[in-house]
Design brief:
Blueprint: H1 3-41, H2 47-51, H3 64-96, H4 100-114, H5 117-132, H6 137-162, H7 165-173, H8 178-206, H9 210-213, H10 233-241, H11 246-276
Helix pairs in contact: 1-11, 3-6, 3-8, 4-6, 5-6, 6-8, 7-8, 8-11, 10-11
Length: 279
């Protein structure tokens, strides 16, 4: 065997070993985090967790008001952010093409995509909370919507651009107007990817804490009023984990376990939709 052949085999084995070791290193911490969350959180998973509101220290209770508050704000964020993200992504993918304005919008969207969520929380605090004079679920939902929009926009843009041009040309050759081509042909072809983007965005905003600290804050009591401070799971986890009370710590671990499982299920569902390539 030549020296060059042995040298290539050595570097191939070395790079493969480093790749495997770094993968195992990352998986070790991921498994440790998941196991710790499950080990501490499973003890407080019971009927009280979803049927009773957050308790004062030393009293039994659950996170029912926090779960409901989170669902309301996430639902508001999806209702507001998904149509905006899909329509903006459609403009970029179908109409902007390679125009300069398309490149500028994509660049700004990438900045928003990587912007720290606490900055978005401060923005909504200035725009909504200071104007209303108090924290509210409405402000929390808007903050989550702003985080959701860039993810949906980027995914929609990428998925529409993956649709072969021949499909559009075939529809146009039959005399269909372009808006009908977009809604009946390209949307249908890219639907699984667009839906996956919405699910990934949903998974991202489900655990956001920083923007809610500046917008919805928290509410110790049951409240579904969008114009009042609203309980939510991420902020409750933060406040209970920082407290000196053991029963609050147990509830914080249970809330963390529930959020982790929800995000995990959404990620698995999005991968399943991608693998199937259809709804």
């Amino acid at each position: 065997m030549s020296w060059l052949y042995l040298r290539r085999r050595f570097f191939n084995a070395f790079n493969l070993s480093i790749s495997v070791l770094t993968t195992l290193f990352g998986l070790f911490w991921l498994v440790w985090i998941l196991w710790t969350t499950f080990d501490y959180g499973i003890e407080a998973i019971n009927w009280q967790l979803i049927s009773e509101i957050t308790p004062p220290p030393g009293s039994p209770g659950g996170l029912a008001n926090a779960f409901v508050g989170s669902l309301i704000m996430i639902g508001l964020a999806v209702l507001v952010g998904t149509p905006i993200g899909i329509l903006a992504g459609t403009y970029l993918g179908e109409f902007a093409g390679r125009q300069r304005i398309g490149g500028v919008i994509r660049f700004i969207n990438d900045i928003l995509l990587s912007a720290p969520s606490i900055i978005i929380g401060l923005f909504v605090y200035t725009l909504v909370v200071k104007q209303l004079g108090h924290f509210s679920g409405l402000a929390g939902g808007l903050a989550l919507a702003i985080i959701l929009i860039p993810v949906v926009l980027r995914t929609t843009d990428e998925m529409l651009r993956l649709v072969p041009s021949t499909m559009r040309e075939a529809a146009l050759a039959l005399g269909a107007p372009y808006w009908l081509v977009v809604t009946k042909v390209t949307y249908r072809a890219a639907m699984s990817g667009i839906l996956t983007g919405v699910l990934l965005a949903l998974a991202r905003i489900s655990g956001e804490t920083a923007p809610l600290l500046f917008t919805a804050l928290n509410n110790q009591f049951w409240s579904t009023n969008l114009f009042a401070p609203m309980a939510n799971v991420p902020v409750v986890i933060f406040q209970f984990a920082m407290s000196p009370y053991e029963d609050w710590h147990a509830l914080a671990w249970a809330g963390a376990l529930v959020i982790t499982m929800v995000v995990l299920l959404l990620s698995i569902l999005s991968r399943f939709i991608i693998s199937k390539g259809k709804i």
